[in-house]
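Q: Joint fold for the lines below.
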Amino acid sequence: MASISLCIAAMLLLGIVGMARSWLGRAHEVVHGGMALVCGAAALTVLVRLAGDGTDVEILALPVGLPWLRANLRLDALSAVFLLAVNLVGCLSAVFGWSYARHEAEPGRVLPFFPLFIAGMNLVLVADDAFVFLMAWEFMSLSSWLLVLASHREEETRRAAYVYLVMASFGTACLLLAFGILAGQAGGYGFEAIRAHPPGAVPASVAALLVLLGAGSKAGLVPLHVWLPLAHPAAPSHISALMSGVMTKVAIYGLIRVLFDLVGEPLWWWGAVLAVLGAVTAVAGVLYALMQDDVKKLLAYSTVENIGVIVIGLGLALVFKSSGVPALAALAMTAAMLHVLNHGLFKSILFFGAGAVLTATGERDLDRLGGLIHRMPATALFCLVGAAAISALPPLNGFVAEWMLFQAVLNGPLLEQWELKIGFAVIGALLALSAALAAACFVRFYGIAFLGRARSPGAAQAREVDAVMLSAIAVPAVLCVVVGVLPKLAIAMIEPANRLTTGEGMFDAGGHGGWVWLAPASAFGNSYSGFMMFMTILILTILAVFMIHRYASNRVRRSIPWACGFTDPAPLGQYSASSFAQPLRRVFAGQIFGARETVDMPAPGETRPARFTLEMRDPAWDRLFTPVVRLVGWLADRIDGLQFLTIRQYLSLMFFALVLLLVMVAVSQ
Amino acid sequence: MPGIHYDIAHMLGAVVLLMSFALLYQRRLFAIIQAFALQSVVLAAAAAWQGYIQDAPHLYITALLALSMKAIAIPVALHRVIDRLNIRRTVDTALGVGPTMIAGVSLVTLSILLVLPVTADVTALTREDLALALSVVLLGLLTMITRRNAIGQVVGFMSLENGLILAAIGVEGMPLIVEMLVAFAVMVAFIIFGIFFFHIRERFDTLDLHTLENFRGERR
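A: Joint structure:
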């Protein structure tokens, strides 16, 4: 605990160093290098802790804050898992930022807030009372808001920052109310007090829904996800990786902390709501991602999908926990938490990769990239690992988590309520759909950006980025492989957090199946071995390469590529990002996105080019936000009249308000 | 002799309330000021009586202040304002007498319903006094919103303040300084009102708030 608090203090200090940039010549190096060291140290501390026993709880009460309340901090297994994710990605993004942020136009807009942002996230994770939690939450939101605003001269960025600020305020307001309800009439805002006196069923349900709204808006649950695809592309890439890879996870942490730890005995329908929302989020997120041409927007929507997958896991865990099957709850929870760590890893690969591509080519539009595998081979390799991992391909880490989630779904028939049995099947189907679509999405991403031929001069002249950036991309790529091949290492670290939240370890906890086989549900049920899978793939690959070289001609042949009959194929004749997405767009987009394709085809003989235009909308805007905005505007118009009352009307207003309150007091006695 | 003490205090409080009702239905400016002066006289008497039965000499000062300022100085000043502005004959169009009275009675009922259960554990004198005082405050507010003329509103405000004094003198151990401060606040308010009267008059030739509202371009 002490070491984590020291790390947080060091981060705050580095933030001050960042502010003093104009006096300090080497502030850039100090901040990024310092953050890499501090985050690395924090990550190592929790790693050692998790590798050891991990079940002990450390408490620290700092004599700061409100007069009658100290700042209570607490480090337990659940915090530790998320601290690991935050600080690992924080360390990587500091390393990446070392090189990447040199090209920043206004470093003063990033440098101070980068350490503060990470400090805020760390503080949320160790908060032990509602005040510290909310303060840290706001700290995190505001510093990330300032980071989103870094390139404030662009109109789009300002809009993104505005939407983000509104959503963040909305989320915090919901959390504030939720903690108010949890604290109850006694007003115990310490988490210990809340744990000791859990509220009754109705207030607890209201609090659970409020937390779902508050944390869900930060995590990006559909339909509260609208800020996410706006804000992530606006921020610098290493910040996007942080926001997308770990800030959304801090929101997930809030969800877990309240629903599994503070609120007492959960009700089964909370889990059902979570799982359904998660499933909708997963499918919608990946569909949105498939339609995007902007690389960072695509990645942001893919984050929405992954949050959906995690929330499905939480929902299943909640249902199993309240139905009295804690071992399965632990399984779903492990899957969710493993996915939290995984997503942090592969989303940072991909965002760093997008940042590297952006520095090398100056392009973010998929249709202006292409052929980068020749120009930037190392980045391309690591991005391939990231894309394969996020598509849940074995033997990488993404597969392990989704596989365990499916194991949990397949155990749905153990439940008693028939609604849940059917619901689990539907959710499983949606999960499978989203996994398949995610694979398609990343085939598109990788294929269009890295394969084929360059579609723009920028892409044609790209240079590989420097070693510092590459190392920041390489480390998570290696970790993806390690976690995928030896998943039990990571699962063992999650185990204590699991026991804390679901009250039970996974069936496999006792080392069933040794270190190779993962048998999460039972000794006779399904089991999976990342190591075996890895070896099989390795051997088959070697065999295939050998066969090709042995039995096929290995001489290089050069020929003109086939190009639909054109003799001089322009790069634009290639299969493009929009062409790739078109079939899926045809299937889903009509209803979901209100997509309209119009083709302006010139008549025979005309010399003007044909034009294809595509219009797409986010239905969350049309069906939820626009009506809400209109309602608020309408109400504001009505209330506006209050500014132009006569003196007597003002007095009457006060008078009737007073009388009404007095009547309420009289009646309530 | 607690019986007669209580009865007299109660009666004086009730007369203050009665004067509030009188204030409520008067339509001519002159009569309104008269009713207010009368209310202040009774208030001074109530304060003096409370000073006697509570054995609290500072309440005599309160009584003196109420008598000199509210019963004499302010009514005289208001008379002079009316004379100088020459609005002696103005009839203050209020809400109809019937509805006003019904509203007033309901307010008194409300305050009794409100105060009696809340203050179950204090002496009977304080309880009754607080209920009466709250009624006077609410009626003062009602007077303010049923007046169209600025002077009517000022008097309503002053009578509201009488209710506060009534509450203050009924509670044992209320320090003098509180009452002094209230009295001075009202004095300052009155001076400001006076200045505004003349400014409004100078500009609009009337004290009818209607004109002000029209001037500001407001909806009616």
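Q: Anything notable?
A: Chain B is about 80% helix and 0% strand. The CA atoms of residues 21 and 104 of chain B lie 7 Å apart.
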